[in-house]
Structures are given as C-alpha cells and as structure tokens.
Specification:
Elements: E1 8-14, H1 21-29, E2 36-43, H2 47-53, E3 61-66, H3 71-81, E4 86-90, E5 95-96, H4 100-110, E6 116-124, H5 141-147, E7 160-162, H6 163-168, H7 179-189, E8 194-205, H8 214-235, H9 239-263
Parallel strand pairs: 1-2, 1-4, 2-3, 6-8
Antiparallel strand pairs: 4-7, 5-8, 6-7
Length: about 260
C-alpha cells in the first residue's frame, strides 16, 4: 500500500441529524491516530444536511450522496470507495473515545489473524451523560463463535475489520435489518476470526429518535429468525435452534414488559 494512502477508512452512513452528528464527526476527526479517511455517505438526506456536511473543511472527509435509503447499500458503497487496509464503522449519534482507532489499529497489526475487531462500550443519554455499561462482551474468538447463535457479539458501531475480508464475503447483504449479525455469521462460515477489546472505546447513545415501532420490531424479529434458521440448515449446529428460541422468547418478553410500563406510565 502506498505511504500516501490512509491505513484506516472510517465509514459513516447518515440520512438525518438528530442533533448529535457534529459531535460524532468531531470525535473521529480528533483521534490520536491521524492516518485515516472519514467516508460519509449521505443517503436520502435533505439539501440542508448535505450543505452542512460540505461545510467541514477537513481534507480527510470524503462525501458521497445517494438516493437509496437502505443501510447495507450505503455501507457497501463506502467500503468500495475505502482506501484503507482496515475499515472502522461509526454511527451518526455515537462518540469515539480519542484513542479508539489507535488501539484497534495496534491490535490488528499485532494480530494479523483477526479479521473483525470490536470493543467494549458504554451507554450515554441525549446529553452525553453515562447511563451505564452493558453486559461484558465475549473477547476471544472461541467464545464469540460459541455465542454467535444467540447474539451478534460484535457491537456494530465499534468494529474495525479488514476491508479485503469483508469484500471477499460480498459485503453487507441487502434487505436486512440485522445486517451486522448476518455479516458476522457469513464471515464465521468462511473461517474468519473475531476479537473484542476489553477497553470501552465508544460511547453508544440512547435517545428518543431511535426506531422503536412495532413494525420495526416485527421486521427485526423476522430477519433474525431467518438468519438463524439459515445457519441451522447450512451448518447443522444445534446451537442455532436454541438461538432461535432464546432470541424469540427474550425479544417478546422485553416487548411485553415495555408495553406494560407504557400503560402504567
């Protein structure tokens, strides 16, 4: 790879600004690791948002605009345009810790067998205040593979992956609402290797504008059950049958509890 090219491409797809976009972008631009590009794909966005994105003067930002709102398409476009050996995901409402890219790059360079690297993260609210840390992730490849039938294991906004590995797996699949889990499952069948860093290197924002509709929930359930059924048939691993039951029962239980709380609020 040419010394003039970035070694990391950060990719961010956005179609609206819920008030957190500037902080998200600046958290990438202020990384201690400096040799990267930030590819922003604005999909189905307003002219106002496009004008705002063009107001950034940092030469590391590469902008693309599409009229296709499907996230997998826009992520694949960014990966295709990426010049880095590694691709790092970012979302428009989250915040990178300053050493995120440096820590992930150092690990990937020291462990060339790893294809996908996630990190621990913390939850923040709309004001950026910490509201807790989710359950600890599985960190080793072996533990991640064991848990993949039950959960995604790799927090999508935290991941850095080898561009070549994801291109070899044909990138993100279109039409899915669980596009990240689907990609990890397909990569696992290709014998790709995974890891998660124990350091929390991303602040994941929980806010009211995130999709919580019943139709979105039903679509997500249908997609995940479809993914796990596919893997059960292709791999023959009984864990995927258990994963289907665990995911469905857990999701329905959480939805029921949320409805009861809403009624009594």
């Amino acid at each position: 790879m040419s010394a003039d090219l970035p070694n990391i491409s950060v990719i961010l797809a956005v179609n609206r600004d819920d008030g957190f976009l500037q902080e998200a972008i600046e958290s990438v631009l202020n990384q201690t690791h400096r040799n990267f590009e930030l590819i922003i794909v604005a999909n189905c966005c307003t002219d106002e948002l496009w004008t705002y994105l063009n107001s950034f003067s940092d030469s590391r930002i590469k902008l693309h605009r599409t009229s296709i709102g499907q996230l997998p398409f826009n992520l694949n476009l960014a990966i295709e345009e990426a010049q880095g050996k590694y691709v790092a995901r970012m979302d428009a409402d989250d915040v990178c810790e300053p050493k995120r890219l440096a820590c992930q790059f150092a690990f990937m360079e020291a462990h060339p067998e790893v294809d996908v690297l996630g990190t621990e993260y913390v939850h923040i609210d709309e004001k950026g205040q910490s509201i807790g840390k989710p359950s600890a992730l599985n960190h080793s490849h072996e533990d991640i593979i064991r848990r993949l039938p039950y959960e995604s294991c790799m927090p999508h906004p935290t991941v850095m992956f080898k561009r070549a590995s994801v291109l070899a797996a044909s990138g993100y699949a279109y039409g899915l609402y669980a596009e990240d889990w689907d990609l990890w499952l397909r990569l696992a069948r290709r014998q790709s290797r995974f890891a998660n860093l124990p350091q929390p290197l991303l602040r994941y924002r929980i806010h009211g504008a995130q999709s919580t509709s019943h139709s979105a929930l039903r679509r997500n359930i249908a997609n995940v059950i479809g993914l796990l059924t596919r893997e059960l048939i292709l791999t023959g691993r009984p864990a995927f049958a258990a994963g289907i039951f665990t995911y469905l029962s857990g999701t329905l239980l959480r939805a029921t509890v949320a409805q009861l709380r809403a009624r009594h609020a």
